[in-house]
Predict the structure.
Amino acid sequence: MRSFKLLAEAGFAAVGNADRWYVSDGATAVGPVALELLARGIEEGKVPLESYVRHEAWRVWRPLSDVALVQAPPAADSAAPTQPYRGPGPVASSSPTDDVTLPGRPPLPEEVHPSDALEGAADMPDALHLLMNAAVLHLLADVALLHVTNDEGVVVHYAHGPFSRSMIGMRTSFTDPVMTLARAGSVVVTEPSPGPAGKTLIERLMQLGVVCEAATMQPVVVDGRLIAVLEVGRQGPQLRASELVVIERLVETFVSRAEAGAWR
């Protein structure tokens, strides 16, 4: 088992009395959880040493190595491999858990509360990251891209999938069929028979390393301006109407809070 010790110079005096922490592997965020549970997940090898952590009072994510000293056990004591960090995912038990040392089950449609999905966002980029994570968790998605707009087109800021790191920073023009529809405020759903935009969406998500049977694009329009484009896909089965409704609710809640100035 690893040993875990907070670094005194990491500035923990600024977190106040609240014990609410988030941990992310770069694609999926888990939290809020108590520091004790976070430490246990790290010590037992369920949380990768390359993870990022953030207290709800902080405005930025920090590498785990910046806030804690983690020492691995000697090689002789680690013959048995540790369980990989999975984050929320399907398990045999139907009981929910907020323990980062255990894989949790995905939320059921009736349990998804859009405002909860965005809780703890420090700023607009953080809120967009949480929005993508919530969409991935609800759809049990294999891949996802969160594009942020600029004057020339869109740029991938967040990605989920086997090749997510290679997709960060990818630029796409507004002439792309999917982005043309996004600028018009239209949603894209690839099944049952994808059109030109649907085929483009599937081909882009394939670059993340997964061939998707089901995919959707949701535009994020704030104060009449397209600020981001969310693309989510999975190998199968096809998307249900109830799942699409929840994704739309997540986006609508994000837009409502953004227009109210929640992250300015």
